[in-house]
Amino acid sequence: MNDYQExxxxxxxxxxxxxxxxxxxxxxxxxxxxxxxxxxxxxYIKCELYDAEAVQQVIDTFPIKSLKFDxxxxxxxxxxxxxxxxxNYFQPIIIDDKCVIHSSFHTDFPxxxxxxxxxxxxxxxxxxxxxxSQIIKQLLSQELNGLRVMxxxxxxxxxxxxxxxxxxxxxxxxxDEMAYLNAVENVKIxxxxxxxxxLGDATRLPDEPVYDILLANxxxxxxxxxIDKYAAAVKSGGKIILSGFYxxxxxxxxxEAAKYSLKRIGDTQMNNWACLILQKE
Length: 281
What we know:
Blueprint: E1 4-12, H1 16-28, E2 33-36, E3 40-46, H2 52-60, E4 68-76, H3 78-89, E5 93-95, E6 99-102, E7 114-117, H4 130-141, E8 148-152, H5 158-165, E9 169-174, H6 177-189, E10 196-199, E11 211-217, H7 220-233, E12 234-246, H8 250-258, E13 262-270, E14 273-280
Parallel strand pairs: 6-7, 8-9, 8-11, 9-10, 11-12
Antiparallel strand pairs: 1-3, 1-4, 2-3, 5-6, 12-14, 13-14
């Protein structure tokens, strides 16, 4: 079990927009999990990757210059993190009154058509973040029965599980080994062991178009670098649903996507986090 550094950043004044931007900047610096609150943000990174100077650089380059920051870091053993997350951070969430997401230790949650159990460990993706919840809404609004779906950067496996629950044949890829193992565990907990979870990156995608829908909730830079591989793996008329970036990033992604016969057919936004829907011509 990997050991982690728990980074605490207090911000004054603080807002949802501030913590969202801070989380995105820290994600680019290697941080894996984020817990925002009214005073700031708690984030987690593997011990060997922690760098106080990198944190200071994030603060120094933060786009809103009038804010006051202070930060501290605390060593956290991997197993201790799991316990703390379960006890304090992950609460049940309901999306569109159709899908409830909770952990195996939760007992008080409403009944919904789709009941997903996620024990998140260190993996990202409980449905609470605007990027994950927007893709969940897309999956709930579309007919998936019999379609073949790829979930890139699957994290906890939550999107893969929902797609399988809705009748899709699902593959999933995750680059982080701990997240990969967590996704494998979660697909079993939800009784969908047929989901093919693979360890790796976009090189695991086939060269021929086999998917009806490809999901990628990652970040802008990775999407920009891999969108050619996404396009190659999707059938003509198929969709690519992207999130993990801001509303203002859409024109850049749309321009890059157009190089690979991908056309923007819709988008949504939540707290300035965007979800972009593309279709292959």
